[in-house]
TrEMBL record:
Membrane-spanning ranges: 12-33
Keywords: Membrane, Transmembrane, Transmembrane helix
InterPro entries associated with the record: Papain-like_cys_pep_sf, Transglutaminase-like_Cys_pept
This protein's name: Transglutaminase
Top-rank taxon, per record: Bacteria
Matches recorded under PANTHER family: BLR5470 PROTEIN (PTHR39327:SF1), PTHR39327
Length: 232
């Protein structure tokens, strides 16, 4: 140590400062890129829906923090379970007095109620929050075969699809069935079209047909309301 000159110490200090500044820069750019203001979400939840809703967002914040370094399969499982357990299925007519309303995650979790679109939107949003790439996720409209009053009926339904690679068979995250399953095992579902905040796909097409926001007014509207809530 005695042989280290002041010049050498100065160089080491400079290198350390640069390293710290670069780390801080990466940290803050990471936070900014994340784009989820949990403090704002919890505050709005408390104002609009009460303490329980605010606590749910704090719980969700802790969950997303713990999942940052988890495997993608663990992220899918935990986020899928969180919303399937916290939100009860309810028709838009009963919740919103409308035939079709796409709720933000703040609204769905705040009211602890939502329909298939609301489950799918919330899962999509918070899987992105734990760094699942956007191009691996699509909200998918399907024709679903359901059993009602001992007879089979076909209804419009929405699920969230996860593609490990562009060519992979998607995994299906659904509010009707809690287990995440490959699409091939869901014989009850027939895809119609899918989308995320970048594109829109028809059927099983591998290439997007068009921009989703210009073609889906309800999607464009809910994205704007999510941004107002603190989700970018």
């Amino acid at each position: 140590m005695a042989g280290i000159t002041n010049k050498t110490l100065g160089t080491l200090r400079l290198q350390l400062c640069i390293a710290v500044m670069m780390s801080l820069s990466l940290f803050f750019s990471y936070i900014a890129a994340e784009g989820y203001d949990f403090n704002k979400l919890a505050t709005l939840a408390k104002q609009r829906y009460g303490d329980e809703a605010a606590n749910d967002f704090l719980e969700l914040q802790q969950l997303t923090a713990t999942l940052k370094n988890a495997s993608e399969s663990e992220k899918l499982s935990q986020i899928n379970n969180f919303f399937n357990q916290k939100v009860m299925f309810a028709d838009d007519a009963n919740v919103w007095g409308q035939s079709d309303y796409w709720a933000t995650p703040l609204e769905s979790l705040g009211l602890h109620a939502g329909d298939c679109e609301d489950f799918s939107i919330a899962k999509y949003v918070f899987l992105k929050a734990v760094n699942i790439p956007n191009d691996k996720l699509r909200l998918t409209y399907v024709r679903a075969e359901l059993l009602e009053n001992n007879r089979k009926v076909v209804k419009a339904h929405m699920v969230l699809s996860y593609y490990a690679t562009p060519q992979s068979e998607p995994l299906i995250l659904d509010n009707l069935i809690p287990q995440i399953s490959p699409a091939s095992s869901r014989k009850d579902l027939s895809p119609v079209f899918s989308f995320n905040d970048k594109g829109l796909w028809v059927g099983n097409s591998a290439k997007p047909k068009s921009d989703s926001q210009s073609n889906l007014s309800r999607w464009r509207d809910v994205l704007a309301r999510m941004r107002a809530d603190g989700i970018e």
